[in-house]
Amino acid sequence: MARYTDANCKLCRREGAKLFLKGERCFSPKCAFERRGYVPGQHGQSMRKKSSDYGVQLREKQKTKRIYGVLEKPFREAFDRAVRKKGIAGENLLQILESRLDNIVYRLGFAPCRKTARQLVRHGHFTVNERKVDIPSYLVKPDEVIQVREKSQRLEVIHASLRAVGRGRELPWLTLDKSTLSGSMVELPKREDIPTPVQEQLIVELYSK
Prior knowledge:
41% of the residues lie in helices and 8% in strands. It is an alpha+beta fold. The chain has 2 domains: 8-40 and 51-97 and 196-207, Ribosomal Protein S4 Delta 41, Chain A, domain 1 (Orthogonal Bundle); 101-191, RNA-binding S4 domain (Structural Genomics Hypothetical 15.5 Kd Protein In mrcA-pckA Intergenic Region, Chain A, Roll), CATH 3.10.290.10. Helix 4 packs across helix 5 (89-99), helix 5 crosses helix 9 and helix 6 packs across helix 7.
């Protein structure tokens, strides 16, 4: 399956915003976006930003895909599912993306970034309701319990990430029990409780053309 393998910091610079793709590094002076906040490439510093309505909508979609680490096909499938659900399509889309197991693992603080969370899930380090799940796109339902497997509970990457929890990742729709290395989604998140800096309505407008 296709996967972006270039420097993650280039994605932040291309979108003109910090996407927090590298965990602790994004909070340090080493953050490339803080040091070089212009578009990557030979002419990055001299580029003028001229965007049509379509260009603005496309950039918002690309930014959202990069934040959640989702490729075009599953992203479009998530959008189609959001449109079929009752409610506001843009909010439904973010709820679906937030419900992905890799995102929940990241939001609970078991991983410093979504990329690491995806790797941990794929390697079988988590259970959902006591059943091993190694599919990052698995959609977690309210009240399902996500827990670090017993054989994985000594992984330093998980404990180091949990020690850093406190930088805004505590969310009212999630519960975390550090003593048992488990957590759950209490309810589907409301838009105001999703700290993702995107304008989801622009994505709806883009796909509705």
